[in-house]
Amino acid sequence: MGKKKLNSLEDLGGFVFSTNNDFDLKKETTTETLAPNKQFLEAHFSNKGRGGKTVTVITGFEGAEADLKALGKLLKTKCGVGGSVKDNEIIIQGNYRDKIMQLLKKEGYNIKRVGG
């Protein structure tokens, strides 16, 4: 009973399987962050799986985890709310989609409103 069915490789939680003895995980996973004008982000509104609480989810960021966390911190600070960064998404508590879109456009990002 407590086993979760794995539907894809992503469900393994980031494990990397390699038969290459010279494989260096740190070298392979470091990605360079694209410039803001080359980023294409999406702003989603969601309340599913969160006990009815509304959140704004920003997806599509391409780059280093540290840069994603820095952007998440900037958005949380500017909106004055809590949130988190996980699974390459920025989750902001509350419906701040319009405000976040304005902030990101001012920073030079390409952002698109997705959903209602």
CATH architecture tag: 2-Layer Sandwich
CATH class: Alpha Beta
The helix-strand sequence is: HEEHEEHE
| CATH topology term | Translation Initiation Factor Eif1
Work out the helicity level: 25-40%
> Major sheet: order of its strands?
3-4-2-1-5
- Secondary structure class reads alpha+beta
CATH superfamily: SUI1-like domain
Q: What's the structural domain tally?
A: 1
Oligomer: single chain
The total strand number stands at: 5
Which overall shape is indicated by the principal axes computed on the Cα atoms?
globular
**Kindly, what is the distance between the CA atoms of the first and last residues, rounded to a whole number of angstroms?**
37 Å
- State the major sheet: 5 strands, mixed
Cα-based radius of gyration, to the nearest Å? 17 Å
Domain SUI1: 48-108
GO molecular function: mRNA binding; translation initiation factor activity
InterPro entries: DENR/SUI1_TIF (IPR050318), SUI1 (IPR001950), SUI1_arc_bac (IPR005872), SUI1_dom_sf (IPR036877)
Keywords: Initiation factor, Protein biosynthesis, Translation regulation
Give a short overview:
The protein has helices spanning 25-29, 65-79, 97-107; strands at 40-46, 55-59, 83-86, 89-93, 110-113. With 116 residues, the protein is α+β, with helices and mostly antiparallel strands.
